[in-house]
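subagent[fold] <- orchestrator: predict structure for attached chain, return tokens only, no commentary.
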Amino acid sequence: MKNKLFIAVLPFLFCCSGNTWAQDAYNEIKDVVSALLKAEKERQCLRIGEPRADSVGIKGKAMRIFCNDNAAYLSYREENVQQIYTALKQELPAAYQKYRIQIWADGRPIEQHVPAYFRTGKDKALRWAPQVDVPLKKCADRSYSIKAGMQDRHIALWQSHGWYYEQKLDRWEWQRGRLMQTVEDLYTQSYVLPFLVPMLENAGANVLLPRERDTNRQEYILDNDADAGYTETAGLKAWGTGSGKGFAHKQAIYRDFQNPFLDGTFRQAETQVKGAESRAEWQTVIRERGEYAVYVSYKTVRNSSKDALYTVHHAGGETHFRINQQMMGGTWVYLGTFLFEEGQTARVTLSNLSQKAGQTVTADAVKIGGGMGNIERAGLLSGYPRFTEGARYWLQWAGAPDSVYSMKHGEDDYTDDYVSRPRWVNWMAGGSAALPKRKGLNVPIDLSMAFHSDAGLTKNDDIIGTLLIYKTIVEGRDTYVNGASRYLAAELADLVQTQIVNDVRTLCASEWSRRGK
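subagent[fold] -> orchestrator:
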């Protein structure tokens, strides 16, 4: 609205003055600003459309020069912002030398496009993070506390596209074509799974993915509804069957809209601080040596425990986790990846011992390994390991509502796959500080990010470069539903892109370009 207010002043000024000199001066100012921004674009080696000034607005002794969106794609720092303003001042007509000048792009002055990380003084952008007293998962073996950095943050992350069923051709295929002996659906995973996810987790974050993260083809499903693999030990508190639906693995293949998390039951026990514990245990013999991801599932109920104690018994010993069962009930929750030897009995246990008595822990299923795709489409299975498949199929296997993974009602898997990922984020964040008015799994998502390669080529072998995508205005609002500024995404995009481009230019290709953000 402020942009429109300033721009609307122009016709009034022109009509009252009857002087074409002012309009000529404005055109000259626009030309100068456009030239300065173009020079900055060339200096930064940006591969974007031409930045330009579109209009000039005057109110009192304040002048605003409004630019197109391309001007917002420049990388601004305090130094180059000051250089732009200094150069502009030198070119201004004498009548405007004492005016307060601001250059605007994407709804804000360019000085506010400088990421807060690089700003000096008190002019810091609003920083926000969801408030959560207990995160989804904490390692219980750590003898010290960490509160800074990525510790206890919740990050939703996904690695591009995947193997999917194409209804028009009645076959499974890659979403992205083959290029230079690579397939984007697999290529991006080579960055995300072995590098990006572990780095974030080692920094303390809980990383959540809408696709299978384990590349192991083996999979073991253990559940309280199964005939074997699940046992209970009763201490001071007895185990009982909870009220509501739980997971059950009753079929090898799942078809449209079938949800394994609505096929079974779950068990529950009251928590206690001390005394003889009650314990649930899942166990199986590992057929092949390897590293396996371990997942658990449980039910979120009224008064769920915030510190359910899980223990994974693996080749290296034991690892303990505290899980906040008030989040993520009714889906697979990743604990970690562990080495298991061939013939070893892999065990996962859940104790009712807690720091707070009188709450409820629930026990449902355990999943070890990645496995093969088990979602049938028109009578066809993918035939591929589950980690290669698109998000649409993992989300069905992980208990998401069909409104999350199948907006097209099973008729268009291509669209369902890419639409399912942001819908999955909203499903997880629903009920938390990040999305308080929507029903969901109560996970306070700090950041959601997609990693794509979007590989391409040009006829003259030009470098295409690196692109970061975000949105600052959605449905006319520049804030998220919780009040946080969407410009925080712009700042993060600038920081990440700057680091990536600088690294590539230093280590690989000095001519690598920025494609804007």
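orchestrator: received. Logging for downstream: The first strand starts at residue 53 and ends at 59. The two ends are 24 Å apart (CA to CA).
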